[in-house]
Amino acid sequence: MSHEIDIWEPRWYDRTVLIKCVRVKDGDNVVTFSRTPSLPGRYHVEGRLVRSCPVGSNGKVPCYVVPLADLVGEEAKPAQERLW
Fold this sequence. Notes:
Blueprint lengths: L2 E5 L8 E5 L7 E6 L8 E5 H5 L3 E3 L4 E6 L4 E2 L5 H4 L2
Parallel strand pairs: 1-3
Antiparallel strand pairs: 2-6, 3-4, 4-7, 5-6
């Protein structure tokens, strides 16, 4: 089962995504960007991959700093994995 994570927008200057540490679950995490029309759809990232990223801050809470390149769009996933 996938865990949904909504993010307003990535951090463009270094092409990363800040994901709150407490929001990351084991297995598949599905990221959607609610205020970024240039990144439509849903993106997948494994919990263990996120936890291997460095921890930074968004100014309020600790967050994993995940490169945008580590997010996999749904069109890149095999069809059998998209059926949920």
